[in-house]
DNA sequence: ATAATTAAAGACAAAGTTATCTTTAATTAT
DNA sequence: ATAATTAAAGATAACTTTGTCTTTAATTAT
């Protein structure tokens, strides 16, 4: 569904939301280890989420690292997708027509659009915080390898 | 959702189902033009669907080309996905965990699985023939550019 | 038989994605 | 000030996907 980059962005953001605070920033090494992702690549990806503290915040230097504001925790998952430039996939035609439209629909459109709408709703209503709470509560995981 | 290759495979197969018969085979040029895809790349892709006449049939030489049997028209869309090696995407975790499972679910799993199940059902129940009929009836299209 | 036509097969090229490594800049602690 | 620490920035490499082009094989028509 999503690129590796977006998968890492989602997992990293959820992990940061679960573990960090302004007084307890997380290093890229800790994050990458926790979500089982390549360190340098994850660092690159997080750079897409930090400008203007749009999704997550970063500070350099000792005691620096990544954290997320209470405000940003309330953002929907869709905010991450937008920052990653992947929100277009929810507009795309499942058969690859240039435009997904009612005017010139592909033969899967009439049934696919309902499913797509559910995906959009899910990404628009679920917040980063809600996902982090599931990790915190031990009912969900960000890493297949360890608990 | 799918790779370009799979999108072309789906559109090409539906077009062949709509237009061809054993007595009226279609050239790769006609197919690629009709579905607005690169000719040579589409030829390569169709080679994945022909072995054993699994999905479509091809014959070389004059009056040769591609066609599809009545039997194959009744195949579900999923048959094309399997031939293209894309059926795994319906098993994948939306956050990229190694396994999508109830035992160790990601925090999107509980809601995403329902949507995923609808997608699987759609691809398992919709047949190539049904999609071709929508093109034939003029209520759906395989090409954004022309009618 | 020969020539013409068509898909199959294979080599190759271009572009995009994923990943690593090195250097730079910002911040903190001494 | 200096050194240590951390993310940012940039260069580059490996791999995958997408796409093109040429040669080969099969089939038909003459
Ligand atoms: S036109 Fe294909 S999904 Fe809407
Ligand atoms: S575990 Fe993530 S979708 Fe099932």
Would you give the CATH topology of chain A? Arc Repressor Mutant, subunit A
- Average pLDDT of chain A works out at 95
CATH class of chain A: Mainly Alpha
Shape of chain A: elongated
Number of helices of chain A: 7
Hetero compounds? FE2/S2 (inorganic) cluster
Describe this structure as you would to a colleague.
2 copies of one chain form a homodimer. Chain A is mostly helical. The first copy, chain A, has a single domain, classed as Winged helix-like DNA-binding domain superfamily/Winged helix DNA-binding domain (Arc Repressor Mutant, subunit A, Orthogonal Bundle). Chain A has 7 helices and 2 strands. Chain A has helices at 4-19, 28-35, 39-46, 70-73, 77-83, 109-125, 128-136, and strands at residues 57-59, 65-67. In chain A, α1 packs across α3 and α2 (28-35) packs across α3. The mean pLDDT of chain A is 95. The A-B interface holds A 1-2, 4, 7-8, 10-11, 14, 77, 89, 92, 94-99, 104-112, 115, 118-119, 122, 126, 130-132, 134-135, 139-145 and B 1-2, 4, 7-8, 10-11, 14, 77, 89, 92, 94-99, 104-112, 114-115, 118-119, 122, 126, 130-132, 134-135, 139-145. The complex binds FE2/S2 (inorganic) cluster (2 copies). Residues 93-95, 97, 100, 105-106, 108-109, 112-113 of chain B line the site of one FE2/S2 (inorganic) cluster. The structure holds a DNA duplex (30 and 30 nucleotides).
